[in-house]
């Protein structure tokens, strides 16, 4: 996979659909088809919002900080046991109008990832966990700490995209994918000191989720 630095104000994924809708908008404007002009104009604005790609910087210079990978609201934080290991599970919901770019939580390496294509059921549907589109990534920090991140799409016609390779090194806050609407779960080591609580609004590449102890 060819990795390209996507730093334009509009994500490269959005160029084609936005361009096509813009052509229709111009055509309907020139032909005075006002209803279609309104619909295509609204569609163009929606696409520009969904594919917006702002720069993000953090003032946190601590090597042990874990930044949010996604924009959204923290739905819950709970302790869990997976493979006989105690972990912290942080669930974040991101809406369609949140920034959709996914960002690396810290300086480190993508240990691996899996992308499952599927449907886009509501998250409250009991079948969503086994049928919805989902991506799971493993990140390892420079100090050797490992974090797993799960992204699941919901009720969206926009597919999840992961633009990373196994063993690829990423800088803190660098872009690695796209999730228009859905749920993100961070599986953190049990000794992480949390920096958010349920109801917190977080921004990808800026908000500190927690710190490695």
Describe this structure in words.
With 213 residues, this protein is of the alpha+beta class. It folds into two domains: 12-50; 65-211, Glucose Permease (Domain IIA) (Distorted Sandwich). The protein contains three helices and 14 strands. The protein has helices at 15-30, 34-50, 128-131; strands at residues 65-67, 72-82, 85-94, 101-103, 108-116, 134-141, 146-153, 161-162, 169-170, 175-178, 182-189, 193-194, 201-202, 208-211. The strands form three sheets. The chain has an eight-stranded antiparallel sheet, with no helix packed on it. A hairpin with a 4-residue loop joins strand 6 (134-141) and strand 7 (146-153). The longest helix is centred in the N-terminal third of the chain and has 17 residues, at 34-50. It is elongated and about 65 Å long. The model has no long low-confidence stretch (mean pLDDT 91).
Characterize this entry briefly.
The chain has 213 residues and is an alpha+beta fold.
Question: Any key phrases for this structure?
Answer:
about 210 residues; alpha+beta; Glucose Permease (Domain IIA); 2 domains; three-stranded antiparallel sheet; 3 helices; about 15% helix
What name is given to the CATH topology of the largest domain? Glucose Permease (Domain IIA)
**Estimated share of beta-strand residues:** 35-45%
Q: What integer value in Å does the Rg equal?
A: 18 Å
The H-and-E topology, N to C, reads as HHEEEEEHEEEEEEEEE
Average residue pLDDT: 91
Number of beta strands: 14
Number of self-contained structural domains: 2
Please identify, by name, the CATH architecture of the largest domain: Distorted Sandwich
CATH class of the largest domain: Mainly Beta
